[in-house]
Specification:
This protein is an all-alpha fold. It has six helices and no strands.
Amino acid sequence: MPTVQPSKFNPARIWIVLGATFAALAVAAGAFGAHALEAAMENAEAGPKRLAAWGTAAQYQFLSALGLIALGLMPTAKTKLQFASGVLMVIGILVFSGALYAYSLTYVKLLGAIVPIGGVSMLAAWICFAVSATGATNAWFADTPDEATH
């Protein structure tokens, strides 16, 4: 009978699981916004603006979730830059989308000051992703010469 070997830590799986989870939550948030929130915002102060912010939050969350899944599926060796991209995407989702969701529900305008931090995080994540996708990052960011060849 074959023995089951414990699986090694695989960061790629984490990105895929997080991406799929964030994507599912974005779909749920989009559906909530299109149905329940839309009716609630009909007579709310700045309702259309708040509803649009909710839609933007769900859209960017979904796109970043797809980025996390793509990051986990990259065929290249997992580099520090890829890890940074994943962390920055998660931070971007939590800060950008989270602040927009909170703004939409509460209309606390101060939350708008936080949104750009999440946006910059998402932008940096995609730049890290693009650079890591070149495959050259192993040589550029290797700690030792041996890492550049593996």
